[in-house]
Specification:
224 residues, alpha/beta, 8-stranded mixed β-sheet, 6 helices
């Protein structure tokens, strides 16, 4: 399988977001990533998951949802990482861009969110029911999506470590508010960062299986 990788800048509400794209040929879907608290497109955990998706024929887009100046501000204050409205707007901008960008145009999109990025992904899914076909949250805070949870009709998978007890309870409550098909997968022995042996690998496989199940191009949709 040939994999085309490139760095791009994606316009989003007056700013440009740095992103790394990887597009297998052929591709059956595209997955933008919404990173979590204080993270970026260089997150080794998300890059590992992205590699698993690419090996299954899915294009991935790892974009910094904050500009370098915003990241510096957030490092000092910690405010922007919890600004779900801002992050969701950026995820929507990335989604709108990738479904029009020539190598991924016409492909169904899935959103992968981690930590606070999961809330942004769910809000974006609620507001982009057309292009977004599925959502996966890893160690996420879906509760921060608030009222938008009831507007998410796409299949949603919530992956949480069993030792991440506070976040697990928040995910259980959020699961009951999702309207579409939704599943909670609890990984035994895993904590919030899935650093335990085999935990991240299992999370990546679960995400891969979810996306390959639901990101299916129609007969008239183009493939990369």
């Amino acid at each position: 399988m040939n994999l085309v990788e490139q760095s791009v800048q994606i316009p989003a509400g007056g700013v440009a977001l740095d992103a790394d794209m990887a597009v297998p040929e052929p591709a059956t879907g595209v997955v933008p990533f919404a990173h979590g608290s204080g993270s970026s497109r260089h997150s080794p955990r998300n890059r590992y998951v992205a590699g698993e998706l690419q090996a299954s024929g899915l294009a991935t887009v790892l974009a910094d949802l904050l500009t370098p100046a915003e990241e510096q501000l957030d490092a000092r204050t910690g405010r922007l990482r919890f600004d779900v409205g801002l992050l969701a707007a950026r995820v929507m901008a990335v989604t709108d861009w990738v479904v029009e960008y020539r190598p991924t145009a016409g492909l169904p999109a899935g959103l992968f969110g981690a930590s606070t990025g999961a809330a942004a992904a769910l809000v974006a899914a609620a507001q982009r029911p057309g292009p977004v076909a599925a959502v996966v949250s890893r160690g996420g805070r879906p509760d921060l999506a608030g009222q938008y949870l009831r507007s998410v009709v796409q299949p949603a998978l919530l992956i949480v470590g069993a030792r991440d007890t506070a976040v697990l309870e928040l995910n259980r409550k959020a699961l009951r508010r999702l309207r579409g098909e939704a599943r909670l997968e609890v990984i035994a022995g895993a904590s919030h960062l899935f650093a335990e042996p085999g935990a991240l690998e299992l999370a990546a496989r679960l995400a891969r299986d979810w996306f390959t199940r639901y990101l299916k191009p129609g007969p008239d949709e183009r493939r990369a």
